């Protein structure tokens, strides 16, 4: 029923758009992305990836041939092990550009994960006063955009609760906006062709949040949507995208989404999704076809909703890369884009 509703809405919206260019933007500007931030680390374990027919092929070649045109990468300031730090992300970005991918950076402004539950200030910035912190945000952002030259940059990751806590917490809205202004100005000053995103996790409360940051100079609204956390109504997702695009006069991109192809596991690291009650049933079971159908529905929404301009699949590379006995590896291998034998899943066809 959900898929039928989405199809009907898609047909209506498509019919209402120009034959040469939809209201969501020109085809060449549309984002068909994957977040594969852990791939540099995973690649050191030398896994052998395969195409859907079982033929071994390089990971990046497989996703490129599947229609992925953009790669999203997280960037941490001073990560403990170096992964997702500046040097690694810069080197990987150069490799991606050489293969024809656009690069989308998610600046966490933290040494570790930044999300609605935590927005920890980098250790090296802890003792800065507010004005010094704004300057540090400006200078750090300048270093990143001039050194890597991304096509898109998020100034913060899932900043529902603000960023750079406690100074830039949402409760201190004026400070939060000032920090975002510093980041935005740095991008405009040093990478004027780079599109700036502000990223919110979920759909509940999104309109209120983007009203709070309406004065910031940015280009794209970025949303996360996972059924386990953000509700099981794709209709509500589509309506929210449309309302935000119109009310904020911004393009909207779905920055993170994912879905399982199985509820089984391939290592001893606890998986985040593992129960039927976390799925959208009966429309999208945890099967290879169910995963593909979910992403196809997401693509239909972001292809046809006025103001939407694409989507990004999160964790497509997160196989059980440390082996089947690891307890500290992937909580996501059942949502990767490759099965437990490292063969490309049908879901990759949905990116075309």
Radius of gyration: 19 Å
Distance between the termini: 24 Å
Main beta sheet strand tally, sense and closure: 8 strands, parallel, barrel
Spatial arrangement of strands, main beta sheet? 1-2-3-4-5-6-7-8
SSE string: HEHHEHEHEHEHEHHEHE
What class do helices, strands and sheet pairing give? Answer: alpha/beta
- Unreliable sequence segments: 1-25
Overall outline: globular
What do the pLDDT scores average to?
Answer: 93
Helix content: 25-40%
Q: Total strand count, please?
A: 8
Features:
single chain, 352 residues, alpha/beta, disordered N terminus
Give a written overview of the molecule:
- This protein is α/β, with parallel strands linked by helices.
- It is globular and about 55 Å long.
- It has an 8-stranded parallel beta barrel with strand order 1-2-3-4-5-6-7-8, surrounded by 5 helices.
- 48% of the residues are buried.
- 34% of the residues lie in helices and 13% in strands.
Topology summary:
Layout: H1 2-16, E1 31-35, H2 39-43, H3 59-65, E2 70-75, H4 86-98, E3 102-107, H5 130-148, E4 152-155, H6 173-190, E5 195-201, H7 206-212, E6 220-224, H8 227-230, H9 234-248, E7 251-256, H10 288-304, E8 308-314
């Amino acid at each position: 029923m959900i898929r039928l509703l989405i199809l009907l809405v898609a047909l209506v919206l498509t019919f209402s758009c120009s034959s040469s260019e939809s209201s969501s933007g020109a085809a060449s500007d549309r984002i068909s992305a994957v977040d594969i931030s852990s791939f540099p680390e995973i690649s050191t374990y030398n896994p052998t990836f395969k195409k859907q027919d079982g033929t071994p092929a390089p990971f990046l070649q497989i996703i490129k041939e599947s229609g992925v045109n953009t790669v999203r990468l997280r960037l941490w300031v001073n990560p403990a092990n170096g992964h997702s730090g500046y040097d690694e992300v810069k080197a990987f970005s150069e490799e991606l550009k050489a293969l024809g991918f656009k690069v989308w950076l998610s600046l966490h402004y933290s040494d570790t994960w930044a999300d609605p539950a935590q927005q920890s200030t980098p250790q090296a910035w802890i003792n800065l006063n507010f004005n010094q912190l704004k300057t540090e945000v400006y200078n750090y952002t300048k270093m990143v955009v001039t050194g890597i030259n991304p096509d898109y940059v998020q100034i913060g990751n899932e900043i529902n609760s603000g960023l750079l806590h406690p100074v830039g917490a949402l409760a201190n809205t004026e400070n939060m906006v000032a920090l975002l202004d510093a980041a935005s100005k740095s991008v405009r000053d040093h990478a004027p062709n780079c599109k700036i995103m502000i990223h919110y996790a979920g759909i509940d409360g999104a309109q209120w949040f983007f009203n709070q940051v309406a004065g910031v100079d940015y280009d794209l609204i970025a949303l996360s949507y996972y059924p386990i956390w953000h509700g099981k109504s794709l209709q509500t997702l589509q309506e929210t995208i449309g309302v935000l695009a119109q009310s904020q006069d911004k393009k909207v991109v779905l920055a993170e989404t994912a879905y399982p192809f199985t509820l089984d596991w391939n290592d001893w690291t606890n998986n985040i999704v593992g129960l039927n009650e976390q799925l959208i049933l009966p429309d999208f079971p945890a099967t290879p076809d169910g995963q593909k159908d979910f992403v196809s529905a997401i693509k239909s929404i972001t292809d046809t909703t006025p103001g939407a301009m694409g989507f990004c699949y999160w964790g497509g590379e997160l196989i059980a890369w440390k082996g089947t006995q690891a307890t500290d590896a992937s909580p996501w291998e059942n949502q990767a884009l490759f099965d437990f034998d490292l063969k490309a899943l049908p879901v990759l066809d949905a990116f075309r």
